[in-house]
Amino acid sequence: MKLTNKIGVIVDSFGIGVREGLNKAKDVGAEGVQIYAVKGEMDPENLSPAARKELRSYIDSLGLEISALVGDLGGHGFQVKEDNPWKVEKSKRIVDLALDLGTNIVTTHIGIVPHDPSSEVYATLHAACEELGQYAKSAGAYFAIETGPETAADLKGFLDTLSTNGVSVNFDPANMVMVTGDDPARGVHLLKDYIVHTHVKDGVRLKEVDPRDVYGAVGYAPMDHEKIAEMVSSGTFFREVPLGEGGVDFDGYFAALQEIGYTGYLTIEREVGNQPELDIRKAVEFIKQYR
Fold it and tell me: Which residues form the Xylose isomerase-like TIM barrel domain (predicted)?
């Protein structure tokens, strides 16, 4: 096996701001970057056409490209009907921003897909994703749902009911290992028609956990990234660890991606630890071993 995929890094993992993070990504050997675009300086409302053009030019000058934007609006995802009008509209604006910056992928969490397709939450998620998918498809873009909150089989079943592939998949193997206990290689093959972006992250599962306690759900607390970061570092149910030290079989994961013909980015995500730059440098070198 010889990987030819480009290596990306989530800029926000460095915790030093967008511009410095871009420079750091270049410094650690990444070829592309993923950037959160939901608030602050990267909120679409705060980036004028001129600012977008300047930022894209700056990224180009570093010899980088954007693998995807993160458009995760948190809370209960798209499970609450009353919240969806503004969330869907903002998500569309994030797609517009992505296209202006040279990528056609926006990754997000939509909320856990219920196992029961006759439930009200399932219908609410479906309606939001149908609208988002049609918008993305019309623009030549994708909303990519991150794996982990539900099994690959449940996610595929949901995606198969949508009218387009405008809503697709951002495949994260560690989330599957840590939360649902799914096998990443098998998940890749199940979701092969939908994978447009991937994360490279590792973790261990210490005991079984209800995904709703991690990702939130209607009737549960909303999803909170700080809470998740605390969970992956505290190690009660699972722990995020440096690449190669956890339960992800990277030989199998990378082989599966090759087998389905995936040619997109392998984007490093590091959500915990007090030495993110060191961890990310090691992750870049880890992936390069497969080249």
Answer: 23-289
